[in-house]
């Protein structure tokens, strides 16, 4: 019995040592995917000097540069959940995750849209993109401080993965249908990117995704299969649908609650 107990203890110690590595490996995967997106964007710059912007190779590169960021979003969704499930959450993991997110959801999308449609706008485009990256950094720094209290049930401000998803959605769609972005798309990004940055650092509450732990394993598998099938068959459409729905639903709910508060305060003033 003594030997068995010692072996069990050794196995337990090994597992406890391995547990913190798993979520950090997922975070590392997300970071590498963000870097892969940046490298793909730089390759596009090289290719544009030798081939036409509307060539299939360029469209493929833009699609993959966007998809790498999308895969990084998936890694970000799982690393925190895995850490909590294994009981291996730590300050190091939270900080490392935020650093990874800054690269994958701050720098990588900015480089991508600059190459895609903003390179001809020069300093104005750089100002908009720098502002977005700074806001992403501030958003992540605030999350590190508030993650255990303020942001336990809701996100304060738009989460950086969703902001990145909103940025890459049009690129995925245009690349899938071989559409070259025009001047209107460039002006849309010049206006929308700083707005996304401001909403990231705002106090607008965004709901966290629902917890499926009480739904049942079979139902979760069915839901997961439906979502996975939709994403694989229509990635651009699904990314655009999910991110825009999440963005506008949170924004509209915030506006609705603000209007409701004002009407209630007016009623109280009329009573007194």
Task: Output the keywords.
mainly alpha; 272 residues; Four Helix Bundle (Hemerythrin (Met), subunit A); 2 strands
Description:
The chain is mainly alpha-helical and 272 residues long. It has a single domain (2-205), classed as Up-down Bundle (Four Helix Bundle (Hemerythrin (Met), subunit A)), CATH 1.20.120.1760. It is built from nine helices and two strands; from the N terminus they run αααααβααβαα. The protein has helices at residues 2-18, 21-48, 56-86, 91-118, 122-146, 160-176, 183-200, 217-233, 235-271, and strands spanning 154-156, 205-207. The chain has a two-stranded antiparallel sheet with strand order 1-2. α2 runs antiparallel to α3 (56-86). The chain starts with a helix and ends with a helix.
Number of helices: 9
- Structural category: mainly alpha
Strand percentage lies at under 5%
**Cα Rg:** 22 Å
Question: Could you say which overall geometry the principal axes of the C-alpha atoms support?
Answer: globular
Main sheet strand line-up: 1-2
Describe what is shown at a glance.
The chain contains nine helices and two strands; from the N terminus they run αααααβααβαα. By secondary structure, the protein is an all-alpha fold.
List the helices and strands and how they pair.
Elements: H1 2-18, H2 21-48, H3 56-86, H4 91-118, H5 122-146, E1 154-156, H6 160-176, H7 183-200, E2 205-207, H8 217-233, H9 235-271
Antiparallel strand pairs: 1-2
Helix pairs in contact: 2-3, 2-4, 3-4, 3-6, 4-5, 4-6, 5-7, 6-9, 8-9
């Amino acid at each position: 019995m003594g030997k068995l107990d010692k072996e069990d203890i050794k196995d337990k110690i090994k597992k406890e040592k391995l547990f913190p590595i798993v979520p950090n490996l997922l975070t590392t995967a997300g970071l590498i995917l963000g870097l892969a997106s940046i490298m793909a964007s730089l390759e596009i710059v090289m290719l544009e000097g030798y081939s036409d912007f509307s060539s299939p190779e360029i469209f493929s590169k833009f699609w993959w540069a966007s998809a790498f960021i999308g895969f990084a979003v998936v890694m970000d969704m799982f690393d925190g959940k895995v850490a909590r499930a294994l009981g291996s959450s730590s300050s190091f993991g939270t900080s490392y995750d935020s650093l990874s997110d800054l690269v994958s959801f701050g720098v990588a999308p900015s480089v991508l849209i600059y190459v895609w449609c903003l390179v001809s706008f020069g300093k104005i485009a750089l100002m908009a993109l720098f502002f977005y990256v700074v806001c992403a950094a501030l958003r992540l720094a605030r999350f590190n401080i508030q993650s255990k209290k303020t942001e336990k049930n809701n996100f304060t401000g738009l989460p950086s993965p969703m902001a990145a998803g909103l940025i890459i959605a049009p690129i995925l769609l245009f690349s899938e249908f071989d559409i070259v972005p025009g001047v209107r798309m460039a002006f849309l990004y010049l206006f929308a990117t700083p707005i996304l940055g401001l909403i990231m650092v705002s106090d607008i509450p965004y709901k966290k995704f629902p917890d499926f732990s009480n739904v049942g394993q079979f139902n979760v598998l069915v839901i997961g299969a439906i979502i996975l099938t939709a994403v694989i068959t229509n990635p651009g459409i699904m990314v655009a649908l999910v991110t825009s729905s999440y963005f506008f639903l949170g924004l509209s709910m915030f506006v609705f609650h603000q209007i409701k508060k004002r009407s209630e305060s007016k009623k109280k003033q009329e009573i007194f």
